[in-house]
Design a protein that fits this description.
Blueprint: H1 2-29, H2 32-44, H3 46-51, H4 59-66, H5 70-82, E1 87-90, E2 96-99, H6 116-122, H7 125-128, H8 134-139, H9 146-151, H10 155-161, H11 163-187, H12 189-192, E3 197-201, H13 207-215, E4 220-225, H14 227-230, E5 239-243, E6 255-259, H15 267-280, E7 287-292, E8 294-295, H16 308-319, E9 326-327, H17 328-338, E10 342-347, E11 353-358
Parallel strand pairs: 3-4, 3-6, 4-5, 6-7, 8-9
Antiparallel strand pairs: 1-2, 7-11, 10-11
Helix pairs in contact: 6-11, 10-11, 11-13, 15-17
């Protein structure tokens, strides 16, 4: 009798495993729908409209305001509510209405917490096309870039000749900067004490450096990037925009700062960039501040913000020629090879960590 009971238990356990496998593979098959529908919500301006109203908004009022089909909007909202992105609650007048959640507020077009620009970039046809060439890259014996296979040039050359896509990239990088830099500023104030001048290498439109200078007004900022980037960068108090190529040289400053730059490049290219950074800072008192993901294998099903680093590594495979996310051991290798005598890694509540490197 006990043997039969154990046999039934094993069958039941096997059914549960199979059921979970089915659930997981269906989520994998249709995983793109969340990003696609979130993009739709951004383009319709759903979060922007709800953010301007204190009361929950009924379907009819929302569809009328957005100028769209009520039946189609209902289906969009039903999906997003199911995913926990929006919520439906009573408006106090006997009607149900839509309201914001902490997640949906990140879909607003503007505001310091918006992540809409990142979704619009990653869901753009230009950035989606390279994913169809990912297996070809893996099978290739040389470095066959997925982005180049899709578009005939690498992502940076493409951006240089396509201003609209360049703006998408710069807006997304600025969006990412606003999210990450809050964690850097709130948790790493000591790092920036005593720094009189700071060069942001590959600083984009200056959003990152602008936040640092505002938080630490004793710093004079140099935003360093390519001509087509800094030529359209907005004016920012305490920041000067300087054009140039980080593979040639880096403007001199007391410290250098790089955020989400080195992961775009190979080890050899990173070493070249970092050597130029060492030349730009004082040997005795200078330092290089790097904000990048540090991959760490997790045991079991433990996940969190750091787990996003593994997704970013796949994005590097699809969108760059030689870029990758790195483990602590891999960071130690390139930092030592570049000529740094020591470094430390500071954990912060973000996808990235802060890496401090000293000549």
């Amino acid at each position: 009798m006990a043997g039969k009971t154990n046999g039934v238990a094993r069958i039941h356990e096997g059914d549960q495993v199979e059921s979970q496998a089915q659930e997981d593979i269906w989520k994998c098959i249709f995983g793109f729908t969340e990003m696609a529908v979130a993009k739709c919500a951004i383009e319709l301006g759903i979060s922007d409209f709800l953010e301007t109203h204190q009361e929950p908004i009924t379907l009819n009022k929302l569809s009328s305001a957005l100028g769209c089909s009520a039946s189609s909007l209902h289906r969009i909202m039903r999906f997003l509510i199911n995913r926990g992105i929006f919520k439906e609650v009573s408006n106090g007048h006997g009607e149900m209405g839509y309201a914001q959640t902490p997640v949906s507020r990140l879909l607003t077009r503007n505001g310091g917490h918006s992540m809409a620009a990142l979704i619009l970039l990653e869901s753009s046809p230009v950035m989606l096309a390279p994913w169809h060439y990912l297996s070809a890259r893996v099978l290739a014996k040389g470095n066959t870039a997925a982005f180049s296979a899709a578009h005939g040039k690498d992502v940076w050359e493409y951006a240089k000749t396509n201003p609209q896509h360049s703006k998408l990239i710069n807006d997304a990088l600025a969006c990412h900067a606003r999210v990450t830099m809050r964690a850097v500023i709130d948790n790493c104030m000591e790092i920036f004490k005593g720094i009189e001048s700071l060069v942001d290498v590959g600083g984009g439109n200056g959003t990152t450096l602008g936040m640092l200078v505002k938080a630490f007004p004793w710093i004079s900022g140099i935003n360093f990037d390519l001509h087509h980037v800094v030529s359209v960068a907005p004016h920012c108090h305490g920041v000067v925009h300087v054009e140039g190529n980080m593979f040639d040289s880096v403007p001199k400053a007391h410290a250098a700062f790089l955020m989400s730059v080195l992961h775009d490049w190979s080890d050899k290219e990173c070493i070249q960039i970092l050597k130029n950074c060492i030349k730009a800072i004082p040997k005795d008192t200078g330092k290089v501040i790097i904000v990048e993901a540090v991959l760490e294998e997790k045991k079991g099903n433990e996940k969190g913000l750091k787990d996003v680093g593994f997704m970013l590594d796949m994005i590097m495979m699809a969108h760059t020629t030689n870029g990758k996310e790195r483990t602590a051991k891999e960071w130690a290798h390139i930092l030592t090879a570049a000529g740094f005598s020591r470094h430390s890694i500071v954990d912060i509540p973000a996808i990235e960590c802060v890496i401090l490197a000293y000549p």
